[in-house]
Design a protein that fits this description.
Blueprint: H1 2-23, H2 33-44, E1 51-54, E2 58-59, E3 65-74, E4 77-86, E5 92-94, H3 106-109, E6 119-121, E7 127-133, H4 138-154, E8 159-165, H5 175-188, H6 193-202, H7 212-222, H8 227-235, H9 240-252, E9 260-263, E10 266-269, H10 274-290
Parallel strand pairs: 7-8
Antiparallel strand pairs: 1-3, 2-3, 3-4, 4-5, 6-8, 7-9, 9-10
């Protein structure tokens, strides 16, 4: 009886191991990039038309878990996901880790650069809005109209607005050229940029890839812009690097649609109705009053003791 018990115990230990070796399989692990890609494709129904890149696991802020970043792209569309894999590779968690000693928006705020960008509103305002927009996007047109009308009227000293180019040229054939032209206007006469912003959205239905430059030149005459300089800037794409830099920044933030805006780092995707946006702004103003100035968003100051 004693020998029979030992034999049964041996079978229980050796049997599964033998079966695993015979089948040639091994346990799946979230630390295996191929396993993760296969799992994620199945989870989100991502077919072969979507490129999926799984980064090497790296230590995370969550003890006992490895951070795994996944970038999915299809043409100009992209999406980045962050997962956390357990040390044994058996479990994955998707989510955001928050450090309660820091702003919940710090990671995005660190990516947003507003120096030398078109802006309006009070310098040093407690609320900063950064808009990523496309001049050929109809939703951007409506959001742009709302921002330009409502913000100065409701919050003349409490909000500063910055504009960032994010042309979706895969679906909007003249958006990038318009962004280049807008930057040319801003480079020559910064105060005229917002006139250009309002004008091109108003003319959106009339503009084509063929007549864009002609119309911009006509606009330039109404603002006393030097025509030779403006013409050369557009033809030579002198501001292309600025537009591309803004686009890269947007993609680093995970933006894949317009309009997208950040209110003190808080991301709002799509056309925000005024009651919703107004409520968010009011919340940020009140938060700033009770938390020593609120979030430190997007302001670059000269290195003077007066600006400390």
């Amino acid at each position: 009886m004693h020998r029979l018990a030992l034999l049964l115990a041996a079978c229980l230990v050796v049997g599964p191991a033998f079966a695993q070796t015979a089948s040639g399989t091994k346990p799946k692990s979230a630390l295996d990039k191929a396993v993760v890609e296969d799992y994620i494709r199945h989870l989100f129904v991502w077919g072969p038309q979507i490129s999926v890149k799984v980064a090497d696991p790296k230590p995370s802020e969550l003890p006992g878990f490895q951070e795994i970043r996944i970038l999915a792209t299809a043409g100009q569309a992209s999406q980045e996901l962050v997962f956390y894999a357990s040390a044994d590779g058996k479990r994955m968690i998707q989510g955001t880790i928050y450090d309660v000693s820091k702003s919940p928006f710090e990671a995005d705020l660190n990516k947003i650069k507003t120096d030398l960008q078109p802006s309006f509103g009070e310098a040093g305002a407690p609320v900063v809005i950064v808009m990523y927009s496309d001049f050929q996007c109809s939703y951007c047109r409506e959001e742009g109209r709302l921002i330009r009308k409502e913000i100065p009227a409701a919050f003349p000293k409490d909000v500063r607005v910055y504009f960032k180019d994010f042309p979706l040229d895969a679906i909007h054939p003249w958006a990038k050229t318009a962004a280049i032209a807008g930057r040319c206007v801003f480079r020559q006469k910064p105060a005229a940029f917002w006139d250009f912003h309002d004008w091109i959205f108003e003319k959106q239905g009339e503009v084509t890839p063929e007549n864009l430059k002609e119309k911009v030149m006509e606009f330039g005459k109404t603002k006393s812009l030097e025509p030779v300089q403006l013409n050369a800037c557009i033809d030579n794409k002198a501001t292309l690097a600025e537009v591309d830099r803004s686009g890269l920044e947007g993609r680093a933030l995970g933006i894949n649609s317009t309009p997208t805006m950040y209110v003190n780092g808080r991301k709002l995707v799509g056309q925000a109705p005024w009651p919703q946006l107004k409520a968010v702004i009011e919340h940020e103003i009140e938060y700033a009053k009770t938390h020593g100035g609120g979030e430190k968003c997007c302001e670059i100051k000269l290195p003077s003791p007066l600006n400390q």
